[in-house]
Amino acid sequence: MKRLFVLLVVLSMFFGCSQQPTASNSNEVLPSSENVLLDAVNDLGTANQRFAFNIYKEIINASETSENIVMSPLSISIVLSMLSNGADGNTKVQIKSALELSNLTDKEINSGFLEFINSTNSPDQSITLELANSIWTDDDFIPKEEFININKEYYEAEVQSLDFSLETTLGIINGWVEKVTHGKITDLISEILPDEVMYLINAVYFKGNWKYPFDENETANKWFYPEVGERFGAITMWSAGRDFTYIYETDFIAARLPYCAYEMPASELGTKDSYMMGNNHKIAMYIFVPQGEMLLKDFVNGITQESWNLWLDSFLPIQEIMPYYYDTFKFEMPKFKIDFAIKLNAVLKSLGMVDAFLPSADLSGITDIGGLFINIVKQKAFIDVNEKGSEAAAATYVGATFGADPEFYANRPFLYIIRDDRSGNILFMGQVYNPEYE
Question: For residues 289 and 67, what is the distance between their CA atoms, to the nearest angstrom?
């Protein structure tokens, strides 16, 4: 193997892990109304997966150097769906399109997220999965009651009005984020700008023990092979790996590491209990390791919804893949801990969500006062993967302002024109690709 680069593609947090259903109602068929809701939930999950890969590709392609990344697509989807409830016209169309939600109604989106939020409330002892949403407004800004009520009803959003001019306000908001992420996300908002009047915030917290934990006594320093540069030592966990499932292809290998203590038998899928208690009761980490000359960025850019669905159906026990090497098989992966923060304005614009960032944004569902627009979407995230399991947290906020966009950076090739505005004559024009000044 020329390269070993571990990618956390998905920390599958689609619904919580709960107690085993009783036999008395395990075969109960969903009523038609619940089937309709189940379809909406599944459609929402599929859309969220498409958005997850889309935005992740934009993030890695915008990065010039390889860096460790952790982010929560779900957190972004939730907070922007809350925003969408206050948008109209082309602004709303673009938000839903960027989120891959164009084919779903607002009712389906909101109901789907509510069902997801409700499903996280009864995890078993090995899983903690928590979601929290909030809306913070300046005392002088009163958003429309309908906007507030929808987000309270479907996203269980806490709503608070504070004086944004006070120094204590920033600490109160960041303190809420720190509390709901169990201290893992701090100082989400660095400052409250003078013209900002509202923040929408989502927080996600996950902590899960491995179903098959690693033996800490086997952890050792092993070689790690980057795509560029010399190999180096990494603290690496070891397992016999016989209880995981795998994919072995020419360009990549993959493994599925489950967290849940209980996984629902196939015979019980599609029942009322499986629907109400979780999507197949599966929470797992999927690891994809490119092989040979395949680079990680190229591998990620090649992922499609179709290939992802195919892979999910292709994981097999190692005894089926390598029956003759079952007794000697071993699994190794490094421990890792990552903190990551990113401003998402540019990547969201690249996905087509443009108007929301302009002073001409149509956020008439929030207020009839013209000129309200989004000046920042930012996420901070954290993950810790060790022998016992994983802990991860993320918080995403949307800032709304009446002030002019405070950013203009001529930090890429640009066109310049000197024009006589009296006559309309262009006196000089040109372009700058490599600015020099001596």
Answer: 16
Q: How far apart are CA 76 and CA 201, in angstroms?
A: 9
- Asked if residues 99 and 51 have their Cβ atoms less than 8 Å apart, the reply is yes
Number of structural domains, the chain? Answer: 1
- Which domain CATH number covers 168? 3.30.497.10
pTM of this structure: 0.84
pLDDT in tens, 132-155: 999 999 999 999 999 999 999 999
For residue 272, being part of any structural domain is answered with yes
Going from the C-alpha of 188 to that of each of 94, 117, 330, the distances in angstroms are 26, 22, 40
User: What gap in Å lies between CA 57 and CA 62, rounded to an integer?
Assistant: 8
Q: How many helices (H) and strands (E) does the chain have?
A: 11, 16
φ/ψ (deg, to 5) at 321: -85, -45
Window from 4-13, 81-90, 124-133, 140-149 with minimum mean pLDDT? 4-13
- Which domain, by its residues, includes 191? 1-412
- Ranking 112-121, 381-390, 420-429 by mean pLDDT, the lowest is 420-429
Kindly give the interhelix angle for 145-155 and 73-84, rounded to the nearest 10 degrees: 150
Residue 418 lies in a domain: no
Residue 435 within a domain: no
132, 397 in Cβ contact below 8 A?
no
